[in-house]
């Protein structure tokens, strides 16, 4: 469990202007991170950001704080989160910092760190940074201060890296692709990758103005993408989120294809090619249809808590190479160290081209089970999850579903809410059973 004061499961995040996303706090954070990271040797930090207007302010103060601690920074400008992980590895930098709040609205922002290996910072390093935040900011001697520079070819380096993950013997020639970059960090990268691999690209959500990131576009709202795929008569639509680590697809009929279906296609294709090492890691929210479809193929599947950090931990523990969340966060360790929307999309495209199949047909073989999610507020005195009546209601529903469904009750981490999720083959039955449990939860208060 994460007991840090500022670092959550995905770095530090919040509303710009409210603690901790304020210029003075981020200046101190840059200095504290610099003090801790300077102990490790190399004195260069790479800083990237998405397209939010607050990115300018935050990269300046981060750089000032790092410089005061004696570390030099190299700016990439707007770049996808996974690109910073990649550049941190190739430049052998001490760490990479991404200024982004992913799929959140423009008025939020966040700060995420990557280690020299291109993975999230270990907990003990985050804890050391938090401890340093309690000390007084002391500037190193003038001769020791850090400098700032720009990496001019960051985008072209990352474009080449992405293209290198696509099979050399295949091309996207003849494929019409609509790409929605969410007015975010992939806007100048994803269309180029696809065009250079031969696709005809229609780009939307590629006019960032600092405030339109994720606004009615990208992975959290695919309606624009769906209508454009149909209007353009395209073969596929690809949506990224604001920082490019998630991806959701749309088939030629305008149907949404989520992270569970994407990971099924990728795992089955790896298996076909004899490249599947182990199994697939999903989360508590992964659809039961995914689990049963993988089982039919003889592919092992395990679940972990919600959050890409936990998916990656479980993958490393088991030595497996494929993991994903149904939100479109796909981690493919054969290709890179972190969730990467562009690279995951290329794997699905290579399955389409390599098998001469439409995305719609690649989804056959996996049926998503209907899921009903009911949020129930509770007063906060008694936790309904410990109530005998709620436990009994869950057991009764599980008996009714037998092996063909599941029940999941989760307490929200941020508010007094119990999330009741029931999943099974029959939508009407599932909805009825979810409300039956929700009523039992309400009765506790």
Automatic annotation (TrEMBL):
Co-factor requirement: Mg(2+)
PROSITE patterns for the chain: PGM_PMM
CDD domains membership: GlmM (cd05802)
Cofactor note: Binds 1 Mg(2+) ion per subunit.
Keywords tagged on the record: Isomerase, Magnesium, Metal-binding, Phosphoprotein
Annotated Mg(2+) binding sites: 102, 241, 243, 245
Segments forming domain Alpha-D-phosphohexomutase C-terminal: 373-439
A GO molecular-function annotation: phosphomannomutase activity
Family in the record: Belongs to the phosphohexose mutase family.
Designated name of the protein: Phosphoglucosamine mutase
Gene it is expressed from: glmM
